Amino acid sequence: MRELAEQGRKVINLGEGELDFSTPDYVKRSGIEAIENDFTKYTEVTGIDELKSAIAFKLSRDSGVDYAKEQIIAASGGKQIIFNAMLATLDADDEVVIPAPYWVSYPDIVRLTGATPVIVECDRDQGFKLTPWGLREALNTNTRWLILNSPNNPTGAVYSRDELSALLDVLDDFPNILVLADDIYEHLTYEMPGISPVACRPDLAERILTVNGVSKLYAMTGWRIGYAAGPEWLIKAMTTLQSQSTTSAASMCQVAAGVALENSLDFLEPRLTELRERRDLVVAAIKAIDGLDCDTPGGAFYVYVDCRGLMGRRTPAGDALESDVDLAAYLASEAGVGVVPGTAFGLAPYLRLAYGLSREDIERAMGQITEACAALS
Ligand SMILES: Cc1ncc(COP(=O)(O)O)c(C=O)c1O
């Protein structure tokens, strides 16, 4: 899409996992002040005290679990946190259970450590969610981690308390398995509020690494601050690793993230209203297109579109669409709209549409997708 834009084509990219909202003003100001006050040096590896206190406050408020500072680490994004957790714990024989569709980085991070990702497909008819029996089948004595992500990227699926509890109950029979709970889209929900696995089962706090960050909720992707809370031994191992890689997250960004986390979520309501309207726009347009279909996702800012109905159809140039990758390429070139094929997320044929852009852009993009699909035969 960037190449097409550079060639002067007018393109709309529904492929980016990023919101067009601004970082809240008071958060921006705290970062600027930190720089002006010369808070520009190395910090403690796990993060400054103010940030760790804000993280502990947030986790206590939202999940009802109290963490000590030794159980918390901040890093340069949730992605670095996940990478540190996997690299610190995995050996070559280990397996990590990843429900598909999954965030693209999980399997690659696991592979980078030499361990094996075990992908469990979660179909549309099960709401793209892992079931207790699907989980049980995937577990064995080599399983080290289960990765859970709710609200989910790429489907927007949100697990209920009962669904999460049923999954965690399975793990009672496998006491050595850890859970990586990726809560990065927490609070971005539209009907049912999301719940963190550790809030469901606080008694499993010693086996759950809760991962979160400021990227999505506070529209702070560029500040690069993520964090985790979990068992002290694991945080210590991740700290050792981080001390020999990035040392710490950027000092002024830590200050700003702390301010974001310790303040109220009042700024969120109008943003959620706007996102819900964008989601409904996308869903209504998709349902009106012959050959495409989707369910209404409960969270994040993605719609996972079922495109089975378009497979085999021909483009005006006479090419058959044989996969979601073909369809995404066709929409890029014909409609000027960027979408990500489901193949990238481990469940095809689907398209992920991200509605992080303005309503105007989304309306235009959906109009262009509608026209391009109507031109198929
Ligand atoms: C599911 C999921 N987890 C983690 C991340 C990492 O976010 P960041 O590194 O910006 O904190 C992303 C970003 O797209 C994501 O979609």
Automatic annotation (TrEMBL):
Required co-factors: pyridoxal 5'-phosphate
Instruction: Enumerate the SUPFAM superfamilies for this protein.
Output: PLP-dependent transferases (SSF53383)
Task: Give the highest taxon in the source lineage.
Answer: Bacteria
InterPro entries named among the record's database cross-references = Aminotransferase_I/II_large, AspAT/PAT-like, NHTrfase_class1_PyrdxlP-BS, PyrdxlP-dep_Trfase, PyrdxlP-dep_Trfase_major, PyrdxlP-dep_Trfase_small
Q: Which UniProt keywords apply?
A: Aminotransferase, Pyridoxal phosphate, Transferase
Family membership: Belongs to the class-I pyridoxal-phosphate-dependent aminotransferase family.
Q: What's the name of the protein?
A: Aminotransferase
Organism this protein belongs to: Kushneria aurantia
